[in-house]
Amino acid sequence: HDNGAIFSDFFKGFPFLGQAILVSIILALLKSPFIIFSFSTLPFNIGDIFSGDLQKISQNFLSLTSQQEHQSVIYILITWVGKIYGYFISLIYLFVTFLIVDKQANFWQSMEASRKIVMNKMGFFIGVMLVLGLINIGGALLLGLGLFVTIPFTFCVIYVIYKDIFGTEVG
User: How far apart are CA 92 and CA 21, in angstroms?
Assistant: First the structure.
């Protein structure tokens, strides 16, 4: 008897949709303070970007006073801190969706389990994500076409790590 996937298996994930959406909302809320700050302290209006008025944007940067230059440096530093914070949050909650679907845990149990596992092996996970990020950048440099290979590869690597840690069977 063949244990392969059939079309009706596609719909078996819908019971987990509510938990997955809840996790997405929580992660967005955790990351949002830095995102809001980044857009509120720009030395130009966001509308200028969409209007295509690049001359106005460049004039705003060139006419910065000394105080505004210091504010720009602070803006850049806080933006980088926000990016690092966002990557950290994404990293520690890397396995949440897998746990919701595979172990049928609720969102909070999944978040806690993922956080504990990743925090115990933080160096390993940072290294793996840096290597995968470089691989994806390489894929993007190939006119973006390489991403059709590198993104699925990235998800497969993350799943193999998940399987290795949590001891689940493939398929």
Answer: 18
